[in-house]
């Protein structure tokens, strides 16, 4: 199946390719809503994913469009993409030895219909050292990622375990994508 991915995320593209999809990438320049607190995260990631999917589907009515949005949060704060290395280090040091939550909104647009869902997972970080976090930030990997980490690559060394689907943490819940495509009559 050929999908149009409405995202610039190389991780999302890689997940889809590894799952066997043909992928064309067309990032959408849409204004994303911001979650003011942890209680808004699920609504915001779903709305942002839907906004991206609708924007791409408006130009590509004959395509199956996939869009997503991911936020990291705890009981007190929402962590978007860090504004620079200093903020990335601040995020990571705050996560040390703790559990954070990840919510990814997924939207699929096809045949004039947009279907949205949200999946959540938890990431439990080990008690890594400051020098480990600094080295990770210097690698550049955490920049441009919600919460300033990835569970693939170097970031995996900071993580003790993931509770939930790893693809949700990576930014595209593949199990929910399969369910959505099936429900829309697009996948056997």
Keywords:
188 residues; alpha/beta; seven-stranded mixed beta sheet; Maf protein; 7 strands
Can you put this structure into words, describing what you see?
This protein has 188 residues and is α/β, with parallel strands linked by helices. It has one domain (2-183): Maf protein (Alpha-Beta Complex). 33% of the residues lie in helices and 26% in strands. The chain contains six helices and seven strands. Strands 1, 2, 3, 4, 5, 6 and 7 form a seven-stranded mixed beta sheet that branches. Helix 3 packs antiparallel against helix 4. The N and C termini lie close together (11 Å).
| Main sheet properties | 7 strands, mixed
Arithmetic mean pLDDT = 96
Name the shape in a single word: elongated
Instruction: State the secondary-structure class.
Output: alpha/beta
CATH architecture: Alpha-Beta Complex
Number of strands: 7
- Residue stretches low in confidence (pLDDT < 50, at least 5 long) are none
CATH hierarchy, class: Alpha Beta
Helix content: 25-40%
Strand content: 25-35%
**Estimated radius of gyration:** 16 Å
CATH topology: Maf protein
How many separate domains make up the residues? 1
The number of helical segments is: 6
- SSE succession: EHEHEEHEEHEHH
What is the CA-CA span between the terminal residues? 11 Å
